[in-house]
TrEMBL record, chain A:
The keyword Metal-binding does not apply. It comes from Pseudodesulfovibrio portus. Residues 3-86, 151-234 form the Cysteine-rich domain. Keywords: Oxidoreductase. The keyword rRNA processing does not apply. PANTHER family: COB--COM HETERODISULFIDE REDUCTASE SUBUNIT B 1 (PTHR42947:SF1). This is Heterodisulfide reductase subunit B.
From TrEMBL, chain B:
Residues 21-51 form the 4Fe-4S ferredoxin-type domain. The lineage of its organism: Bacteria, Pseudomonadati, Thermodesulfobacteriota, Desulfovibrionia, Desulfovibrionales. InterPro entries: 4Fe4S_Fe-S-bd, 4Fe4S_Fe_S_CS, HdrC_iron-sulfur_subunit, Helical_ferredxn. The keyword Metal-binding applies. Keywords: Iron, Iron-sulfur, Metal-binding. It comes from the Bacteria. This is 4Fe-4S ferredoxin-type domain-containing protein.
């Protein structure tokens, strides 16, 4: 299992713990990641409102490098926006002769060309279809038994292109949560938008979305994400969202939690970087606090004894 | 309609017309079922519903379109695109509306597109986005001291978590030739 790894900008900046945990976990699971040399930004969701062409050129430049220098192996992207941008070049440009020609005309300014032969995969797609939850289960050393984990998919990994899961009712993370020994927390907001970059220009609108998501996660021990923007919005604005009716819930990257289950320590998974993982939450994770049964009430105890 | 008047003074009228033309084509098949509006998580912040916006595009109601804040409230979540029974690329249409408003260049458009522009300027300069320098560019474009102040508490929190990194040269100007070429081809 060899992949051309595309970390994307966020994972080299405020989401380094996602990058580090992804690399470590994938290595444990037997995948070989080689970073795309000299990769550049995919444009996130900021390119399309500025330039239609650059919206395709930015991701395509990276695919062109993989095609020309890495034998066109599959690209692995952990970030939802990076994944969609890279993927949509294949869906929307390749096959459209006019647009494809325009794209290559721009790429030619850097001596590049993209033929359309590189497959783009999201981290979850690779976990589900190439690795499999069985392997994870076999390698678990520190079971998360009893931990109620709410899988959060967000929007762009399954919309508008549902490649590896049902965008209306996504379930692809569930076997991995179970494999780690955790319990899947059932909720209805797992594919609701977190507000994305609206949080910068119109925070009052995005905070409402985050509050609704966090309110629905009440009762979960943690939310797991696979997108740096989801993670940022759910964590960094949690105070405001709680004031707007949300519940405080720790938020981790799926790969961080998986790393812990696979025997890597909190330091290696950089749990200190998460804004919602206070020392007491980290202590809970360390001692597996959720595994301790709820204390019985006096009445119940009395009844059982009598 | 004031369309002919706009044509005479608009500095980029060709681009302006081509975006509107493309938009009309992209939502021409809309049958006004309202699924897009019902799917949108941000409809409560919009002054015109997505369904009504497509109608306004079909009718070419340029002034009313440009006055609306609807497309600035789109967070690119793709729910409408996924669910539209006509298979229309509605999220792309929202992005095209943002481009149209940028060409129009009103004060509201400048304010609302500041983040996207700051992001792209940073990509052009460094090849990769660097959050600190991108946010600096954003603050400069917003020209309001209260904007950076609102981000101060978060900035401090991120600093204490070691999530803030000083800008570096990144990949340098490796993308500059591509930006220049695209600009030439799009006439922007
Ligand atoms: S969902 Fe599609 S067809 Fe229905 S109103 Fe919206 S754009 Fe038109
Ligand atoms: S893509 Fe934009 S318009 Fe469509 S549902 Fe999402 S936020 Fe609403």
């Amino acid at each position: 299992m060899k992949y051309a790894y595309y970390p994307g900008c966020s994972l080299t900046e405020s989401a380094r713990e996602f990058d580090i945990s992804t690399r470590a976990v994938m290595e444990r699971l037997g995948a070989e990641l080689t970073e795309i040399p000299d990769w550049t930004c995919c444009g996130a969701s900021a390119a399309e409102p500025v330039s239609e062409l650059m919206n395709y050129v930015l991701p395509a430049r990276n695919l062109a490098i993989v095609e020309q220098e890495m034998d066109g192996i599959d690209v692995l992207a952990p970030c939802a926006a990076c994944y969609l941008n890279l993927y949509k070049v294949n869906r929307e440009v390749v096959g459209d002769r006019h647009l494809h020609a325009r794209l290559n005309e721009v790429l030619a300014a850097s001596g590049l060309t993209y033929g359309g032969n590189v497959r783009v995969r999201h981290l979850i797609d690779v976990l589900k279809n190439d690795v499999g939850a069985k392997i994870v289960e076999q390698k678990v050393t520190d079971s998360l038994k009893g931990m109620k984990i709410a899988p959060y998919y967000g929007c762009q990994i399954l919309r508008p292109y549902p490649v590896f899961d049902d965008p209306g009712k996504p379930v692809s993370m569930e076997p991995f949560i179970t494999a780690m020994g955790g319990e899947v927390f059932r909720w209805s907001m797992s594919n609701r938008c977190c507000g994305a970059s609206l949080m910068v220009a119109h925070p009052e609108v995005a905070v409402k979305s985050v509050a609704a998501i966090l309110a629905d996660a009440e009762g979960a021990d943690a939310i797991v994400t696979v997108c740096p923007l989801c993670q940022m919005n759910l964590e960094a604005y949690q105070d405001k969202a709680v004031k707007a009716g949300g519940k405080a819930v720790p938020v981790l990257y799926l790969t961080q939690l998986m790393g812990l289950a696979l025997g890597l320590d909190q330091k290696a998974m950089q749990l200190d970087k998460n804004l919602t993982l206070t020392p007491s939450v980290r202590q809970d994770i360390k001692t597996r606090a959720w595994a301790v049964p709820e204390p019985e009430t006096d009445a119940e105890t009395a009844g059982m004894n009598g | 309609m004031s369309e002919p008047v706009r044509k005479t003074w608009s500095p980029a009228s060709e681009e302006y017309q081509s975006i509107l033309g493309g938009l009309r084509e992209s939502v021409g098949a809309c049958m006004q079922c309202g699924t897009c509006t019902a799917s949108c998580p941000n409809w409560h912040a919009m002054d015109v519903t997505p369904r009504a916006m497509w109608r306004m595009i079909q009718f070419g109601m340029l002034d009313e379109i440009l006055e609306s804040r609807t497309f600035w409230m789109c967070s690119s979540c793709y729910m409408c695109t996924l669910r539209c029974p006509r298979g229309l690329k509605l999220t792309s249409a929202m992005a095209a509306l943002k481009r149209l408003a940028r060409v129009d260049g009103s004060a509201a458009a400048r304010r609302n597109s500041a983040f996207y522009e700051a992001f792209m300027d940073d990509v052009e300069a460094h090849g990769r986005v660097q959050e600190t320098s991108m946010m600096q560019r954003y603050f400069l474009k917003r020209k309001s001291p209260t904007v950076p102040l609102a981000f101060l508490p978060l900035g401090m929190k991120m600093l204490s978590k070691g999530k803030v990194h000083l800008p570096s040269r990144g990949q340098g100007g490796v993308l500059k030739p591509l930006f220049a070429k695209a600009r030439e081809m799009e006439g922007l």
